[in-house]
Each structure stands twice: as C-alpha cells, then as structure tokens.
Amino acid sequence: MSIRYAAVSMDVAAPAEAAFALITDWPRHREWMFMTDARETAPGEIAAYTGIRPFGFLDTMTITRFEPPHVVEVDHTGALVRGAGAVRVTPRGPAACRVIWAERLEVPWWALPAWPLAHAASVLLARRSLRRLASLL
C-alpha cells in the first residue's frame, strides 16, 4: 500500500454557507459532480456511485468531521477507494469563497503504475466538477 495525494481548489462567487450547503446536499451531487450519484445511507454514512451502470464503482464513506460551513472530512471505506478526503470552504468576503477538495488515497502496489493517469484524470474531473458547482451557485 502506498499513499498518494490529489487536490484541487477554486474560487467561487458565492457565500461560503451556500457553497457548503450545496456540497453537502448529497442527492444534488449529480448536478455538479462528474457522473456521480450520492446519497446518505445512514447518519454519517454516504454511498456515491461514479460512472454509468454497470460501468463504474461505488465509493462508500464515513463522515469523520462535519463543521458547517467550513469543513467536511470523510474516510473512504469502499473496496476500490480507500483513504481520507476533505472539502474545505474558506470565506473570501461576503459573497465569495474558496473551495478546496483534497484526497489522501491508499493505492495498492499493483495499481501504482496506473497512478499518474488516475491522478491526472481525477484532478481534471474534480476541476470540471468545481466549475459546475460554481456555475450552480
């Protein structure tokens, strides 16, 4: 197992409270998160399916820190995605904020050769998703 990191940030023309509310409205993820449907399966538990069924993967998560309107942290507990993730929202004035999405992933040794491509794709798709989030706000 090897630890790898990925992160993306974006300034958004919306108050931090509005951005955080949309980010943590799990059923609305399909509106801005690339090809992802998410739902709360139990208090503090999230299941997110990314892809077009049957081609995709299930990412299960446990919320480990929830401090509206600034921080939500999760542990990825699925078979494919494991590690920790965080979204931080920092105010940049009354009508603007910065959204930071970051992941610390546990990559199995057999998947390490694919990491450069997986990292590039995840960062590209995260940027696309944050642009979509900003447009909805």
Automatic annotation (TrEMBL):
Gene3D superfamilies: 3.30.530.20
InterPro entries named among the record's database cross-references: Polyketide_cyclase/dehydratase (IPR019587), START-like_dom_sf (IPR023393)
Descriptive protein name: SRPBCC family protein
Species annotation: Nonomuraea typhae
